[in-house]
Design goal:
Helices cover 28% and strands 29% of the residues. Strands 1-2-3-4-5 form a five-stranded antiparallel sheet, sandwiched between helices. The protein is built from three helices and five strands. It is globular. Bound molecules: nickel (II) ion. The site of nickel (II) ion has 5 residues, from helix 2.
Length: 168
């Protein structure tokens, strides 16, 4: 397994819309394992392929305390089943160090495939619902900072750009 490099805002590659996964092969399995390892190593609860510069519709999540319940969603879509909003202080491995409150629908039904290509459906709410919606946004080139005011977003952008310059 390998730790992958995570792209950071405002990297334009995070804005690319991902394509559906069509090959359920060994390369996909390797990518999934590397994404899980990368997510755990970075103490994240979710990671989308877009964030590691692979523009395929794939994400991994683990919202468990013990970090031993990985979930894989290939070609995920969702519909809202409970449109009451939940608020969470969201963070993102691509926006390191920043947490801001975002509102999203509380309950969703997720339609996806597993790593072998088998379709499944799952009803989720709470933190898992928020996390999956956040990760699916990545596949569409969206980031949680897009939900914030332009002023807040540009402050985050300039702080991160400064840090990125300093670390080069
Ligand atoms: Ni994120």
């Amino acid at each position: 397994m390998a730790i992958l490099q995570i792209l950071e805002f405002p990297d334009q590659r995070l804005r690319q819309v991902a394509s559906p996964v069509t090959s359920f092969d060994e390369a996909l399995e390797v990518l999934i394992n590397n994404m899980l390892e990368t997510m755990y190593e970075a103490n994240g609860i979710g990671l989308a392929a877009t964030q590691v510069n692979v523009h395929q519709r794939l994400l991994v999540v683990d919202v468990s305390e013990e970090k031993e319940s990985p979930q894989v969603f290939v070609n995920p879509k969702f519909e809202v089943i409970e449109d009451e909003l939940s608020e969470y202080d969201e963070g993102c491995l691509s926006v390191p160090g920043f947490y801001e409150t975002v509102s999203r629908p509380k309950g969703i039904r997720v339609f996806a495939q597993d790593k072998q290509g088998n379709s499944f459906e799952l009803e989720v709410e709470g933190i898992l619902s928020t996390c999956i919606q956040h990760e699916i946004d990545h596949l569409d080139g969206k980031l949680f900072v897009d939900y914030l005011s332009p002023l807040k977003r540009s402050r985050i952008r300039s702080k991160l750009e400064k840090e990125q310059k300093a670390s080069k």
